[in-house]
Amino acid sequence: MPSSPSFVSKHSKSTLSVMMHFRMPGFFRSGSNSSSVVSLVTSHSNPAAQPPAPPQPTPPAPPLAPAPPPTTLVTDIIAQIPDAPVHKHEKQSEAHQIYRDQAGHATKGLMPQTVNPDEETVPGIEHPGSTGVIYCSDRAIANGFSYACSHEWSNLGQGAPEVGEIPDAPPRPTTLAMPVDSLEYAPTTGVKALREAVAHLYNDTYRKGKESQYTYENVCIVPGGRAGLTRVAAVIGDVYTSYQIPDYTAYDQVLSAFKRLVPVPTALEAANKYHLNIDQTRKDIRTQGIAVVIASNPRNPTGQVIRGQELKELVELTQEGTTLILDEFYSWYIYPEEGEEYGKSVSSAEYIQDVDADPVIIIDGLTKNWRLPGWRVCWVLGPKNLITALSQSGSFLDGGANHPMQLAAVDLVHPSRVAEEKVALQKHFKAKRDHVLKRLHDLGFEVDIPPTSTFYIWLNLEKLPHPLDNGLTFFEELLKEHTITIPGIFFDINPSHRRNLFHSPCHHFVRLSFGPPLDDLDKGLDAMARVLRKVRKEGLKTIGHSYRKSIGSPIAEKNIGSPVVEMAKLSL
Ligand SMILES: Cc1ncc(COP(=O)(O)O)c(C=O)c1O
Question: Does the CA dihedral 379-165-170-439 come out positive or negative?
Fold first, then answer.
């Protein structure tokens, strides 16, 4: 613990709270993975003035055991960092200026309206701004990533699950039949056999014994989840549409591209485990006239899920005359607690009374649960009248899902196969989640709200020293170590893009994915350990600047130096 009252810096207070929150220093731990071997040291009373303390003597170890590397703990780093500059505005941060420089990312709506000649060269065309994943891939490419060398990188930003074989799951589909009929267009609502099979799966899983049952007329097959979302957004009229922050990045563009609907945000709170507050939503519906509510459940990026009674109450909000759009792409990624059963999934379909009368729209598909993102076969479930509207929007937006893949999907949605897949998936991904949480803990990161669903960890960086404490800078620093994460600001669904990014409720967060295979996850966690170790050894002088703007571009000489000076230059 920092014991001396002479430790007076802007970090003093946070250090104390960190020390209470994080593990106590003063002992050694060694694990099987070399990079997770962490030694802890006693913090200094005046970290600015003293060199790092030597590691405590190692407890008796078996002969030939390797000595643990120097500590990488967040707590120790904070205790050692002298007063770091605090940037209050995005203009002082190189990582944020690189983001703003990309086409479509400039602040909008400022007076007087300015047009960036680099962006607006095609008459009438405006860049919508890249979704988080595209921005992060572009930045990774600027830092040397290519698909040919992707094995040298770790992608903790990956928004998709691993697609290979996993223990005890049915074999992966590897061949595809293409009957002549499948060379034709498929209907814009999808192949009837698949629509029937999807309706059957939902009835079998969530609606056994209920009078109202889904039929193929309640199902529209769409070429991917985003196509489903855009088809739905295209048929929302001139109404207030409520969404929450944080949520899935693509909602940002979806909500701004369709100009008729008026997006209305609500910020979710960690204190409420990022759950949608149902009482507040009911009030908003009544006072603001909200006609549509959209949410992912389980939620990307926080990994939290509304289920049981809470989900029932959410569905009941539709009785207020409001349509509920639930994006249920992670409905199988549910991690049972000790003693609970594997194989349970979550869907609002369980709480709908009348499938044709209750205005609940469910979006799901093969992308995540079936681990087949490349197939582009997904669906929207809802009242018949919605499906006919989606057929119309699909006929000008996308023209329908791939015909042969729809035929091949019929067998994959059979309830018995699904039951087998779910158990295997939950066991495999739960083990990965636990592994990553443990390694984060060993590095000194305590995840405030660990994920109970999805394959994402919403990691708060606030306790790191500035400027490593914001998602975009943390992301840039990890790119230098060949690891991709997704900065939290991409989940700040903010269609008008007006606010200072530093004021975003997601500013201090990154999303880590445990979608990739375990070895890749370890590679990324090793990279995080390296960044922490570097900061501990060298302080912050290399952090927050000297980022490559594009592939092959040199690291600007002038950017190398003190972050304080260089960031001040950028604020011009
Ligand atoms: C919540 C959520 N909905 C929808 C999608 C999109 O799915 P697709 O890749 O099929 O467009 C994603 C993908 O990341 C997601 O996280």
Answer: negative
